């Protein structure tokens, strides 16, 4: 037993000794009092290839077209003349503005959706020069429109000092740490408010509750079994509850269920899951459930940490780890289905691909028994990428994966549909845009997650078209940033439909002289739909005349104001749940297109009312706050509106 633990200790990340700010320190022991690796049978029981097996065929779409129909009465949208995907990085500001209308398919609910076409490939701006912390974790908080960013306390340093006492007392040594490790940033002004942390948040997880509070779980060392809560007010700070979890949760994934409860899956050395206890309560080992998928998919260098976890529209939970995926019934705690293995390498940490749940498309007066839900997984690395980059000398940086795979998780005969991206990517992020398309951003082209373990920053975002008519590419390469966003990068979709980009730290500490220095600058990216020539299509939501709280299945009215006559066929209304973003995983990111029940024109000059139906239940949209966007001609409104869905 001691021998196996010794060899395991040699290969896990990070290594035994870490260099931090000019000092060496011994890699601390795990939080005491927690059972070691419940259900773990030793490294000899773990399959090198992730332990997967093929339970069904694959479909490879070389031409990038989507296989299968658009069940549920959705329309397809089109940007004409995408042409060959290449690295053309011209700004394309002098764009002609046209509209392309594509015939509706399969019983369309709202007629045709029209999207203005543009050759604009996005623009970048540095929003804040020094955020104080490098945003290892990032989430936009509802109503207050502030971005919460935090890293880890283990390094005892950042780029900002606390405004005054008390400083944090470090467990075990009682030395003082007077640096900021968590901030709130106003996404319009850039104003920063420091927050105090006591329990280490390194590689933690989180989700918003039904009232918009962040409930965060896990972390490192004294934070590994901690639950922490941040409420929404001008003076609110972290409330921390150490010892609340039954297992330590370091590199774990948190998911919100349809009734608002949270589950947390995995974490280093704990192939288990548990339900997050209510505030102030504590789990014991009796509340922890062994989860063999996380044992069977454990490579010698892991590759199954931070699993991709999504609530399906039928209430089951989809879990993807390494290269395998299952559906779990959270009520009976049984696996009800395993999907085909996804080939071509590993996808989870430290191979670190990225994933998202694609848009959930609803009809007005929705009555379907099953609402389709699809997962998209892109990039990653070979199973031995971390071993080559971190454990081998000299380091070898293997190429990352170039493929994207799509799967309908509501179909028991679901098959992966695989297409190639324009370039390799790992350590990236996938932001679902208000229109339903996906922005693939950040990351590298070679190597692995880990300290100084990746090379070749992938500076160009790529737009993935969720729906096409099959004549153009599904991918468009957009304009690059000049700031590498490598390991520990993050993003947030903003109310004005821009994308906040932050983080990047390949160093165990805050280093300015590294190959990739610790990054504290924050950028904003304006996607293609923010072409200045399309500004005429941006509607304004009249919040005081709109419903911002609604129960499941009920009607809600949103009032919009714009320039000139509005064509209902060009309208799209979506709601978006802000994700907790870290390590290429966007926990609980969810975009839902609502069905338009009525469209009442000219209730006032240039003003119209849209009557919508709220999602029918929490499995489609877990209770809580969503950003509601009205898109016209494929262009999002000027500012989204926060709407709360409740049982």
Automatic annotation (TrEMBL):
The signal peptide here is 1-22
User: Pfam families of this UniProt entry?
Assistant: Glyoxal_oxid_N, GO-like_E_set
Query: What keywords appear on the UniProt entry?
Result: Signal
**Residue limits of the Galactose oxidase-like Early set domain?**
546-644
Q: Which residues form the Glyoxal oxidase N-terminal domain?
A: 136-529
Q: What is this protein called?
A: Aldehyde oxidase GLOX1
User: According to the entry, what is the taxonomic lineage of the organism?
Assistant: Eukaryota, Viridiplantae, Streptophyta, Embryophyta, Tracheophyta
């Amino acid at each position: 037993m001691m021998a196996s633990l010794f060899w395991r200790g040699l290969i896990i990340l990070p290594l035994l000794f870490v260099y931090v700010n000019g000092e060496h320190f011994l890699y601390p022991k795990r939080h005491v009092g927690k059972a070691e690796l419940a259900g773990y049978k030793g490294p000899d029981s773990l399959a090198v290839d992730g332990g997967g097996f093929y339970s069904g065929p694959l479909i490879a779409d070389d031409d990038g077209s989507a296989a299968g129909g658009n069940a549920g009465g959705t329309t397809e949208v089109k940007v004409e003349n995408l042409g060959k995907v290449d690295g053309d990085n011209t700004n394309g500001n002098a764009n002609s503005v046209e509209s392309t209308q594509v015939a509706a398919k399969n019983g369309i609910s709202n007629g045709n959706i029209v999207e203005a076409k543009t050759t604009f490939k996005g623009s970048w701006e540095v929003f804040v020069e020094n955020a104080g912390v490098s945003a290892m974790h990032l989430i936009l908080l509802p109503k207050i429109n502030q971005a919460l960013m935090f890293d880890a306390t283990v390094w005892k340093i950042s780029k900002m000092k606390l405004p005054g006492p008390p400083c944090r007392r470090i467990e075990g040594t009682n030395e003082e740490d007077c640096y900021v490790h968590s901030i709130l940033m106003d996404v319009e002004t850039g104003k920063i408010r420091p927050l105090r942390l006591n329990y280490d948040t390194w590689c933690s997880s989180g989700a918003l509750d039904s009232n918009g509070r962040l409930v965060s779980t896990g972390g490192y060392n004294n934070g590994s079994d901690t639950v922490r809560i941040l409420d929404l007010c001008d003076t609110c700070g972290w409330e921390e509850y150490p010892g609340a979890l039954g297992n330590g949760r370091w590199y774990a994934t948190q998911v919100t269920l349809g009734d608002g409860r949270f589950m947390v899956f995995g974490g280093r050395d704990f192939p288990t899951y548990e339900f997050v206890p209510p505030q102030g309560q504590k789990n014991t080992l009796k509340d922890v459930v062994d989860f063999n998928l996380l044992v069977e998919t454990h490579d010698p260098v892991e590759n199954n940490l931070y699993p991709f976890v999504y609530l399906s529209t039928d209430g089951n939970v989809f879990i993807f780890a390494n290269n395998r995926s299952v559906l779990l019934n959270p009520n009976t705690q049984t696996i009800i289905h395993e999907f085909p293995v996804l080939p071509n390498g590993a996808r989870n940490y430290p191979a670190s691909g990225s994933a998202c749940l694609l848009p959930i498309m609803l009809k007005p007066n929705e009555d379907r028994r099953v609402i389709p839900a699809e997962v998209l997984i892109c990039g990653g690395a070979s199973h031995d990428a971390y071993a080559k980059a971190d454990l081998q000398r000299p380091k070898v940086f293997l190429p990352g994966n170039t493929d994207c795979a799509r799967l309908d998780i509501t179909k028991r005969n679901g098959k992966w549909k695989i297409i190639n991206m324009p370039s390799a990517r790992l350590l990236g992020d996938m932001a679902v845009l208000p229109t339903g398309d996906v922005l693939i951003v950040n990351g590298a082209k070679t190597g692995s997650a880990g300290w100084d373990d990746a090379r070749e920053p992938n500076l160009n975002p790529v737009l993935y078209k969720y729906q096409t008519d099959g004549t153009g590419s599904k991918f468009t390469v957009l304009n690059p940033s000049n700031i590498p966003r490598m390991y520990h990068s993050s993003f947030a979709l903003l109310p004005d439909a821009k994308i906040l980009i932050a983080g990047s730290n390949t160093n165990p500490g805050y280093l300015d002289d590294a190959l990739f220095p610790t990054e504290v600058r924050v950028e904003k990216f304006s996607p293609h739909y923010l072409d200045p020539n399309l500004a005429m299509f941006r509607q304004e939501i009249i919040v005081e005349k709109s419903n911002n709280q609604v129960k499941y299945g009920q009607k809600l009215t949103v009032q919009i104001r714009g320039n000139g006559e509005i064509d209902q066929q060009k309208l799209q209304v979506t709601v978006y749940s802000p994700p907790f973003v870290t390590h290429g995983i966007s926990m609980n990111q969810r975009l839902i297109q609502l069905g338009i029940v009525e469209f009442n024109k000219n209730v006032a000059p240039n003003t119209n009312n849209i009557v919508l139906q709220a999602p029918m239940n929490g499995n489609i949209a877990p209770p809580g706050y969503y950003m509601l966007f009205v898109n016209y001609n494929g262009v999002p409104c000027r500012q989204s509106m926060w709407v709360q869905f409740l049982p």
